[in-house]
Amino acid sequence: MRGVQKWYGEFQVLRDIDLEVAKGERIVICGPSGSGKSTLIRCLNSLEQYQQGSIMVDGIDLGGHAGNIQAVRAEVGMVFQQFNLFPHMTVLENCMLAPMKVRKVTRDRARELALKYLERVRIPDQADKYPAQLSGGQQQRVAIARALCMTPRIMLFDEPTSALDPEMVKEVLDTMIGLAQDGMTMLCVTHEMGFARSVADRVIFMDGGRIVEQAPPDTFFSNPRHERLREFLGQILHK
């Protein structure tokens, strides 16, 4: 991302965003509500349009034609706060749909991928159930498996645990930790600071649409430079 700016009408939600992420890097983005965190990662697969600057994803310019956007979306998986599973489809069918529609793989290959990644997120026994029969944590793990079935090169997580009951958070974070250990390139918007400490290569703090500070976890938590970050950590670490 180079000089990225975004407005909603008169309100500027992203200001002068410069960000480079290396292959295999794990980035955690945090900050107060309304700071632009979710908008930033949603711009990376054109769920949000930006007005100025440039974004290149794996060598593809998102400012180019519509085919570029589709090419990027095929390589970038995303997991949201809400699980967005199709309620009328089984877990297995939810996971098989995108590979068949987008990647044009056969039904047998899609089923093979779905079972592989349901195993990866440790819920293969739920394959024939419907989303309403699962807990929130299980549904979110299905959403992660569904994204993985597209064999993405990059995974984006937009506060994936914020809609979960506290006892369900750990199972989703454990799944994400496993992906990180596999070397997946990840950008994760979250307030789970334990996750940031243990998994992130770099933690980014946003406020007012800007990247205010970024550093490796040890430095980020032990020696924050900006007063605004010190205030934020003071609030979030002592809840």
Characterise this structure.
- With 239 residues, the chain is of the alpha/beta class.
- The protein has a domain at 2-85 and 154-236: P-loop containing nucleotide triphosphate hydrolases (Rossmann fold, 3-Layer(aba) Sandwich), CATH 3.40.50.
- Helices cover 39% and strands 22% of the residues.
- The protein contains 9 helices and 11 strands.
- The chain has helices at residues 37-43, 66-75, 91-101, 107-120, 136-148, 166-181, 193-199, 217-222, 227-236; strands at residues 2-8, 11-17, 26-30, 52-54, 56-57, 60-61, 76-79, 154-158, 185-189, 202-207, 210-215.
- The chain has a 6-stranded mixed beta sheet with strand order 7-8-9-3-10-11, with helices on both faces. A 3-stranded antiparallel beta sheet has the order 2-1-4, with no helix packed on it.
- A hairpin with a 2-residue loop joins strand 5 and strand 6 (60-61).
- Helix 3 (91-101) packs across helix 4 (107-120), helix 4 packs across helix 5 and helix 5 runs parallel beside helix 6.
- The two termini are 33 Å apart.
- It comes from Castellaniella hirudinis.
- This is Amino acid ABC transporter ATP-binding protein.
- Keywords: ATP-binding, Cell membrane, Membrane, Nucleotide-binding, Transport.
- Belongs to the ABC transporter superfamily.
- Pfam families: ABC_tran (PF00005).
Topology:
Elements: E1 2-8, E2 11-17, E3 26-30, H1 37-43, E4 52-54, E5 56-57, E6 60-61, H2 66-75, E7 76-79, H3 91-101, H4 107-120, H5 136-148, E8 154-158, H6 166-181, E9 185-189, H7 193-199, E10 202-207, E11 210-215, H8 217-222, H9 227-236
Parallel strand pairs: 3-9, 3-10, 7-8, 8-9
Antiparallel strand pairs: 1-2, 1-4, 5-6, 10-11
Helix pairs in contact: 3-4, 3-5, 4-5, 5-6
